[in-house]
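Report of the visiting student (M.T.), summer placement. My assignment was to run the structure pipeline on a short list of targets and document each run. The first record concerns Sugar nucleotide-binding protein.
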Amino acid sequence: MSTLVIGSGFVGRAVAAHLLHSGEKAVLASRTPPPADTGHRPPWSALDVTDPTAVRRVVDATDAERIVLVHGPSDVTWCEEHPEESLRGHAGAARVVAEAADDRRIVLISTDNVFDGTDPGPVETSPTRPANAYGRAKLAAERVLAERGGATTVLRVSLIYGWEPAAAPKWLNFFSSCVHRLRAGEHITAPTDQWTTPVLVEDVAAVTAAVLPAPAPALLHLGGPERISRADWARLIACELGLPPDRVTGQPRALGRYASRPENSCLASTLLTTHPATAGVPVRGAHDGTRLLLTRAERAAAL
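After the run finished, the structure tokens were exported:
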């Protein structure tokens, strides 16, 4: 099977890499090419996802049977400052892709920000109440694609993390930001009252691949099995690095850049471990994922 992954950022690249490793075909498409230093790269096509003609051309040229949509601005603070651009980048682009896709299956990677954070573990049937512009834009994109019925799966994902080099835009990856800053001797300030259910990017890619074939749920939540505050997670990372936990200072989220994020950026699921499409896909918690990534980094440094 051939899959077009629209969005060549951190998550899009991981999804494409997983598909390639599984023996399937994958093509990335985005405004800018993926970094050149990320190892084996899948084919890439330049694409402005808001341009209907360009999207139709790329969909037809790649001859993809399926589409993964990982598009749009994901910086919550930027979206709050640019709500109209955020809406166009998510909902507008989703409509363009839906029209070009015809009857192809689409998997949309969405977010926990479609909830307002008052529920510590919303499930698929929980009512949505976005508390910020990013969440409103993603929810609008979900509704656009829901009009396609069974041809779409919306995969809402909690905070995604993984390993990125020091030169990467670390503000999008809390884990890597903490590792590199702590190793550089910096102290970290993180909120004690902003909770997440972090998900390793490799697990996101595996679940995405699992729901690409039909039948799959129309809506699925993917959160890690551990609920942890950002401050506690940063302390865990410090301890795993052999550093004292007091290198991390906790503060209320209202005092920092997390003010626009819900108190609970968490997800729970009634389907993830029971639906045949995803029941066998393991999802690791923050402790196991942190140790796994740091162990890999140590081995790579020793080579």
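The longest strand covers residues 105-111. The radius of gyration is 19 Å. I thank the supervising group for their guidance throughout the placement.
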